[in-house]
Structures are given as C-alpha cells and as structure tokens.
Design brief:
By secondary structure, this protein is an all-alpha fold. The chain has eleven helices and no strands.
C-alpha cells in the first residue's frame, strides 16, 4: 500500500474540522487493504454522528475518534499487534493529533482489559491516560453497536459476533468476556442520556 505524506492533525483553531480530517486518515489507511474495517469504521462514525444532540461541543471529537479507532489494524500502523495502542501511537507520533483524540483511540471499548491480558496495561497507561468516562462511554457505545460490515447491531449481538469470530479461549474472547459488564453499562448510560435529551435544550456533556 502506497501512502501519501501524512496529513497533519488540524490546529486547535480548526477543531471543527477534525472529523473531516479523521475520515481522510482512516480512508487512507483502511479502505484499500482492510475493507471490512473501513466499512465498520464508517458505521461507527455514523453512530457517533447520531449522538450529536447529547454530545454537544464534543461531537466532532467523538466522530473523529470513531473514524480512527481501528487504524491500528492497518499494516502501515501495526507494531505491537494491539491495535488501540498502535493506533494511538501513530496518531500521536506521526499525525501529531491532539491528546484527547489519542486517549480515546487508546482506550476505546475497554481496551485496558485486553491490554492487561497482553501484559501491556502499564505501557498503555503510562503513555495514554483514560479520557472522561462519558466520552469513553459514547465511543464504546458506537463501536459496540456496529457490526464488522457497518450495520447496526444490539450490544448483545455485537458481543456475540466478536466472541464467535475470534473463538473460545482467544485473547480477544477472554477480554470481551471480562469487559462485557462495562460495555453494557456504557451502552445503558448512553441510551439513558438519549432518552432524557433534551434537558432545557442543553446537551448533557455541555452542562
């Protein structure tokens, strides 16, 4: 895969365009060689965009993280074989992306649990602190309600799909089993916020 020179992350002044930038980066890294990951990323980004009313001023950040959460699978990015860490390092070191975006990618969908299984928890936490729980929950919800082909799934369907795809005893299977309560709690938190919106017309994350 031939890559053009990396697109630098938008400046703070251009944060409103970070999701557009993220889409271009994800397209460059995933579309040709990892078409299913690209389809999944498109679906996750669409889910994130659908949460705009409750995300408020954080919507662009979460949409950007949704586009980028799986770039660590790209052959141009993969280094350790643990895609949240590889993707976050690439965004930080090559694309010079913002700290919060890197944190969201590094910790998406309870990645710390899989990092523990891989003996990488200390490395992950040393390089990337977890992001605010309500933002992490939003990204987890988007990832865990989107199938590999980009279609919407229930959380239960998505969890079952992952475990079936990797097989019993695989490190991802073990990680997902441990993470299931947290993933379901994140999904419940987001769906609860969606039911309660609007509250005096002000998105919850802006209050």
């Amino acid at each position: 895969m031939s890559l053009s020179p990396p697109l630098k992350a938008p400046s703070v002044q251009a944060m409103s365009h970070i999701a557009d930038w993220a889409e271009k980066v994800a397209r460059e890294l995933l579309k040709e060689e990892l078409q299913r990951r690209w389809a999944h990323s498109q679906g996750v980004a669409a889910q994130a965009a659908s949460l705009a009313d409750i995300l408020g001023e954080q919507a662009d950040l979460i949409v950007a993280a949704a586009w980028l959460h799986d770039i660590g699978y790209s052959p141009a990015v993969a280094a350790t074989g643990f895609h949240p860490l590889d993707g976050a390092r690439y965004l930080r070191d090559v694309r010079h992306a913002g700290t919060r975006l890197c944190r969201l990618v590094a910790h998406h969908s309870c990645a710390l649990i899989e990092a523990e299984e891989r003996g990488l928890a200390g490395v992950l936490l040393a390089e990337f602190e977890p992001e605010r729980p309500e933002l992490a929950d939003a990204l987890t919800y988007c990832d865990m309600t989107t199938g590999p082909d980009g279609r919407h799934l229930t959380v239960e369907e998505r969890l079952a799909e992952i475990r079936t795809r990797y097989g019993r005893g695989h490190i991802v299977d073990r990680s997902i089993e441990r993470a299931t309560p947290r993933i379901k709690n994140a999904a419940r938190a987001i769906t609860g916020r969606l039911r309660r919106y609007p509250t005096n017309g002000v998105p919850e994350f802006c209050r």
